[in-house]
């Protein structure tokens, strides 16, 4: 077994690998770029090596620097994590040539499977069912159009070297191909340094189901069942689970057998994932094989009890797998939510910045309304850290395990309530909304889920009756604490605290009578009900308010606002005002503020760089025409005119950095 391993990665996956190494008594070396000098992984590693500037192309992607770091520290093996050099066959070969063990599959397996075009050819030959399409490189837009028309629309244009949802575009028409082909090619070149593109049939409303495989260097390959990753935005996974609510035992075995056959055909000798798109009728087609550890591997670990990083290390060290297919079984249900630095209220666009507050739920066992659940949170950040523009905007991976799917969903919902982040946009309210949706709970999902359920984007959810009660009670309790504090400053000159209030949650106003010290009782005067708030854990200044309403424990995020409080429970956020009956009357008579008219403005939807400004002052623009192209986190965003008009002013040009909401173009 190795005594020292170098981790050629960063963030949560570097931390994840360190944890397993520590348990196995293996020393770790972490390499880091300028941006990561103060990171958690660097803090946790036994040794560290600085490998260059922040852009990955000058640090994490430079094989020479990784190899030199191994030699300098005497690391015998390299774990590449995912992304970066993890699926780079020549890097794996280079390690072998230098006498360093690559903790991943052999280079032959990577080159056979690590490229989408090559792997499809291979899978086809091995008798695996594939998506119909043109399995080969495409020279130019003219050929792309010709091929798309042969396959029949809709088609998917894909970068052969693509990954993480980048370098993919659906085309419904000839025009989509004409625009999309060069765009995907440019994105592929920029992100992967490889602009080979192919086109395949776009399967509508499919599910993404993948099989985890594991092999050793002695010819043994098993599968560790499936994960379903259908909840995606921009073809990128956000919520994953294991097992899949779609599969029955026969389909599971059929998919598992195909995945194992494919893996065996390339002498696969590590952890890997065979991805399929599946129809609602349980038909399935091979998509690609990821020859590395997958981001969402924790859900598989939670249902099998195996540590995949440990298995990869053991297999790389030449150990024989200690179990066979017959020893493996599925235990319970696990869900993963990817907590991203992105703004769900603005089409999930990346949001960079500092984690001014970062307070995750406690890991381990928790009591829940339907029995217990287990929380796991894989993160590579601490409070105060920065999510930079240089790398993936993932903050952490929050997992919940429970004996059944519904209990796991409920556990995840509670864990999301208990996760507090400030300082940048984050998708926790969105993830919580999904956990509360009947369709998600029923398991009838597809990769269109987000488009289907949030056609106009995400705007939070309207509070349910239960949430209205929570928001009302919390508002009343907070007001009571502030009032008590004010009275204490008055040195006993103030009279008894007022008991009767009107609590306004958005437009809903309710008359209440509040009493109690410590525990708070809120009598709903119009409804004849009483809300009792116990186990209150909050004091002024704290952004998180924990308590139980009746016998239900909950957590809300609270912030003082101009008038009252902003309170969020899961996806329901409201301005809560606690008013005296007299001011409630006056309040009713106030005219509502009109939102500013922004219909004539084109605003920057995210912080980024203007790649090109495609309009000039005085130009007549038609709806749908390209106004400008923005780039952030390697993603290009085409901003189009939302209606016909004449350009009155252009406020940015190619090369300009812009902030979110900056006015780029004004129409007359
Ligand atoms: P990546 O390497 O970025 O993960 P994939 O080929 O795995 O690329 O595709 C990413 C996602 O795009 C899949 O999970 C699936 O949801 C969707 N997808 C890919 N190919 C197709 C297809 N032919 N039809 C429908 N959806 C697809
Ligand atoms: P798929 O490749 O099918 O989308 P994943 O969701 O596991 O499956 O995607 C992982 C890919 O996304 C990696 O290959 C990598 O390019 C990128 N990626 C995702 N998260 C990170 C991260 N935290 N650090 C580096 N790369 C990441
Ligand atoms: Mg994929």
Heterogens: adenosine-5'-diphosphate, magnesium ion
State the helical fraction: 25-40%
Strand proportion: 25-35%
CATH superfamily of the largest domain: ATP-grasp fold, B domain
Shape: globular
Written overview of the protein:
By secondary structure, this protein is α+β, with helices and mostly antiparallel strands. It has 5 domains: 4-103, Rossmann fold, CATH 3.40.50; 132-201, 2-Layer Sandwich (Dna Ligase, domain 1), CATH 3.30.1490.20; 213-453, 2-Layer Sandwich (D-amino Acid Aminotransferase, Chain A, domain 1); 465-587, Glycoprotein, Type 4 Pilin (2-Layer Sandwich); 601-667, RNA polymerase II/Efflux pump adaptor protein, barrel-sandwich hybrid domain (OB fold (Dihydrolipoamide Acetyltransferase, E2P), Beta Barrel), CATH 2.40.50. Helix content is 28%, strand content 33%. It contains 17 helices and 40 strands. The strands form 9 sheets. Strands 14-13-10-11-12-15-23-21-20 form a 9-stranded antiparallel β-sheet. The chain has an 8-stranded antiparallel beta barrel with strand order 25-26-27-28-29-30-31-32. The protein has a 5-stranded parallel β-sheet with strand order 3-2-1-4-5. Strand 16 (342-343) and strand 17 (349-350) form a beta hairpin. Helix 7 crosses helix 8 (174-192). The longest helix is centred in the C-terminal third of the chain and has 25 residues, at 465-489. The relative contact order is 0.08. The mean pLDDT is 93.
